Amino acid sequence: MTETNSLRYWSALIFSSVVSIIVALAIIGLSWYLLWKFVLIRFGVIRALFQLNNNDQQPSSTSTTGSRQQQQVQRRQHIRPLTSYHYVRSIHIQRESLCTSNEAWYRSLPMRETSRFWSSLFSVNIYPRSIRSPFYKYFCRMFDGDINECEHGPDNLGYYANFGEFFRRNLKEGVRPIDKESAVVSPCDGEVLANGLVTSVEQLNIVVKGIPYTIKDLFQFDQSEVERLQSKQSESSLFYACIYLNPGNYHHFHSPAKWKISERRHITGELMSVRPEFIIWIPNLLLLNERVVYLGQYKHGLMTQTMIGATNVG
């Protein structure tokens, strides 16, 4: 068998295997959805297990002050210091809430186990070396990645022994020039889903794909922190930006400014897809997913940087 035929054989084998796995997962997911929607959801023990709201709606934002305070106390009971190093205090927050049937069904899927499986698979070195380059190029064509920006591309893609190394690839020097005159720059590649000014002093809302999220819930601020932000609204402005990393994007995070980080918050949750379509389908998705929040100060005041986990990249 010639080298060209061997390359075609292995490429076709990998492609057919990936397609077969995707089709199988789609069939399993659809079957589980139908089973969940028409059978399992009718059992009280299932609704209790997944904290499913009996009204199939999110708790109303107009609930009484007493109930909000009770939920806040329950949430804060799970906050505990983990470690202190340098000037960063790290805390761990376990999220508890009711959810709709769509959310509960999605949360019932083994997304964390699936992510671990793919992570292990992506760590397996690809042989023969000759098939690495066409495989990586095919991935970039599928997800609109620029192979020419890779540190070892496009002529030396075989350098990346496995897909995990390629996914975490570095960029060539100079392909992302940084504006040194700007106070804030983008911390990552991606599509800007939303950005703007936080205009509501009472709610402190940010809006992503038409879905409002409160800063209090997204960052797990307590009431005193919210009140402190509200008190500064008259003398300063608060801006936000939400950036979605496409699978084909450069997957590294950088500091958006010269700032001092004072606290790191790890908020437990799910590893659901954060594609824009899913954000619309599941309104509270960004609150459900696991995330890490960095809090600190830069020359203009408060700064936060939040990395939200997703399927296969949690």
Itemize the secondary structure elements and their pairings:
Layout (H helix, E strand, L loop, with lengths): L2 H36 L5 H6 L15 H12 L3 E6 L2 E6 L7 H8 L2 H12 L9 H12 L19 H5 L23 E7 L7 E4 L2 E4 H4 L4 H10 L6 E6 L15 E8 L8 H6 L3 H4 L2 E8 L2 E8 L6
Parallel strand pairs: 2-7
Antiparallel strand pairs: 1-2, 3-6, 4-5, 7-8, 8-9
In a nutshell, what does this entry contain?
This protein is 37% helix and 18% strand. The chain has helices spanning 3-38, 44-49, 65-76, 101-108, 111-122, 132-143, 163-167, 215-218, 223-232, 276-281, 285-288, and strands at residues 80-85, 88-93, 191-197, 205-208, 211-214, 239-244, 260-267, 291-298, 301-308.
Please characterize this protein's 3D structure.
This is phosphatidylserine decarboxylase. It is a single chain. The protein is an alpha+beta fold. The protein has 2 domains: 3-38 and 125-161, no CATH class; 63-99 and 180-308, no CATH class. It contains 11 helices and 9 strands. Strands 1-2-7-8-9 form a 5-stranded mixed β-sheet, with no helix packed on it. It has a two-stranded antiparallel ribbon with strand order 3-6. The protein has a two-stranded antiparallel ribbon with strand order 4-5.
